[in-house]
Amino acid sequence: MERIALFLAAAAAMAFSAAGGKCPEKVDWRRADDIAPGVKYICVEVDEPRIMANHLVRVDLRTPGLRVTGTRRPREWGNQMPDYSAKPLKIDAKRQTTQDFLDEHRANGTNMVFALNTSAWIPWVRPHNHKYGSFLNFFVSEGEVVSHATNRCPMVVVFTNNTAAITSRIADADVPSVSVAHPSYDTELIMKNGRRVRPPRKQYTPKVAPRTAMGLSADGRWLYALVVDGRQKGYSEGASMGDLARMLKAAGAADAVNMDGGGSATLVFWDGKNSRSSIPNRHNEKRTGYRPVAANMGFYFENVAKSE
Questions:
Q1: I need a surface site. Which of 88, 134, 184, 261 has the fewest CB within 10 A?
Q2: What's the pTM value of the predicted model, to 2 decimals?
Q3: Closest Cα partner for 54 from 66, 43, 70?
Q4: Is 306 among the domain residues?
């Protein structure tokens, strides 16, 4: 565990160094660090078409004991949102940082080793500090529907048997067997069968920004998470949808979706050394300002005592 902690510190320092080259045709996962059984992390830095720090995680869903969970219904679920009056909104989730999400699970005895932010939520209006969130699309955690919104958005789905899919439909009868179903941002499927998918023009956003995206291998074994830091000149300027698709394809994904990015984009690992989990990506040079979000996904080991 100490070796992992030292690696994460080195990866953070490496982000300040100059990068070189384009997106690789294939990510060399042999160079990645083992965060936990079945979970690997690597930072791929490029300077074409712009400077980008690409934080990649590969999860082997066939790893014995590995399970997936997500943001659950809070006690206040279904109540009127108390701090938003522009229109009636029902509470689906309570916002918390991805780091707090992982640390809270560990404090409650769950051996969670990795977490990331996933889906967008509403309201998103100034001052952007609402305590709760409503989801824009269908959202399931631990066989429980958290949001009843439309079930036609591309989403990352992992079932209780650890099979996975990126799909736009879950049958009602299948919901109890779903560990997580987290929708993409603005219904944005960015890759299908290894080919770039462009959304309708009205949804197309070519600008670069910090991003979170997820992908799945063709056989459903490997789940990929990608966070690209952005808005930091000289370190990482951010990614477009095409950048995300290229990097996830290089990582090994066949299908991929864009998730919620910007100031929400966060990866968190448990390194077993400090009192809190570690964040390899950064929102700014001082590593501050990690945003409370309404949707997180976490990976943990069942029936395994949490490491100290």
A1: 88
A2: 0.91
A3: 43
A4: no
